[in-house]
Amino acid sequence: MVPVNLRDVAAHARVSLATASRVFAGNANVQRAIKERVLASADELGYVVNGLARAMTGRGPRSIAFVVRAMIGPTFASLAAGVESVAGKNGHLVLMCATEGDEQRERELIGVLRELRVKAVLLVGSTETDAAFDERAAGYARDLAQVGATLILCGRPPIIGQDDIVSVDYDQRNGIGAGVDELVALGHRRIAYVGEARGMTTAEQRLDGYTAALVRHGIAPDPALVRVAANSEADGARAVDELLRSGVGATAIVAMTDNIAVGAYRAARGRGLTLPDDLSIIGFDDVPVVADLTPGLTTVHPPFFEVGVRAAEIALGVAPAADVLLQTRFMRRGSAAPI
Asked: What's the rounded Cα separation, in Å, for the pair 331 and 291?
């Protein structure tokens, strides 16, 4: 069956193609009787407006693109829900895209989204901290600007010198610092840190926050207390087991993520330790399951949903295009105790 097009609707309604087009564009200058006749013909023929074509020509709501490395985990789901809550309320769709950490895939996606004339591209999550990424992002921003779209970074700090690229982030440095503050207040001095290696924004901000908090309390950072682990329970367990076997005397651990913290639980129990009496552990991300651990994980709650809301508001022009830094919340549960 041949799809019905606008020319068919115009002929059925006995109006010109231009008049039918004005009806679907919402032009107020079309007489009411003619408008009703055109819409009745469209309904009778089963005509469906090409929303993508309308958006690409600036006559319909343009979509917001949500671009992330991988579609996994409750953190990204919460952030996406925040974007959708604003987009849906304002009549816009959200396109979900994953790069799988592939730079070429990222470039191709940005190119396709530019062709689709999206309203904005939200680049979500941790990114590389090198000049190559900064240059790549600047190029994306220029290309998108040519079609009236914007690039917004979500969950990472602003790029220095790139005032045309807005960042919506949360205070990761002080969030981790709050964990160190808690442990120092409980009497700990040998506080270890387990997280990803430098090179990505999240890893660097959280490690820097840990180091700055130690210095603030007059504690000299000890490289032997810093261990590298991938963001997984299994690698967190491996790194913490090595830390505990090394004899460096750690009495507490600040984990870069809750995933790593759960691995720390596993490693500690594997060595016969009792939590938190023998070892205190603090995480970061406040994923839903950690409140139900035994003991419940003391952690840092980032405002992922609010990051999504603010980014979408900026994308749609509901809020000014300015950098945003939201605050985290410290979630005190049962995994940290006095030494």
From this structure: 9
What Å distances lie between residue 35 and 11, 27, 60, 113, CA to CA? 14, 10, 18, 33
Shared domain check, 241 and 181: yes
Per-residue pLDDT of the chain (339 residues; tens, 9 = 90+): 678 888 999 999 999 988 988 887 777 788 999 999 999 998 888 887 665 555 444 555 789 999 999 888 899 999 999 999 999 999 999 999 999 999 999 999 999 999 889 999 999 999 999 999 999 999 999 999 999 999 999 999 999 999 999 999 999 999 999 999 999 999 999 999 999 999 999 999 999 999 999 999 999 999 999 999 999 999 999 999 999 999 999 999 999 999 999 999 999 999 999 999 999 999 999 999 999 999 999 999 999 999 999 999 999 999 999 999 999 999 999 999 999
Residues 6+ apart with CB under 8 A from 89: none
Q: Position of tokens 């820097």?
A: 208
Domain that holds residue 129: 64-170+304-327
Residue 57 lies inside a defined structural domain of this protein: no
- As for how many domains the chain has, the answer is 3
| Pair of tokens at residue 237 | 């367990």
Does pTM top 0.90 for this prediction?
A: no
Q: Both 267 and 229 in a single domain?
A: yes
Q: What is the Cα–Cα distance from 19 to 25, expressed in whole angstroms?
A: 10
> What is the amino acid identity at position 116?
L
| Token pair recorded at residue 286 | 């406040």
Residue 151: beta bridge partners?
Answer: 121
Spatial distance between the Cα atoms of 192 and 210, rounded to a whole number of angstroms: 9
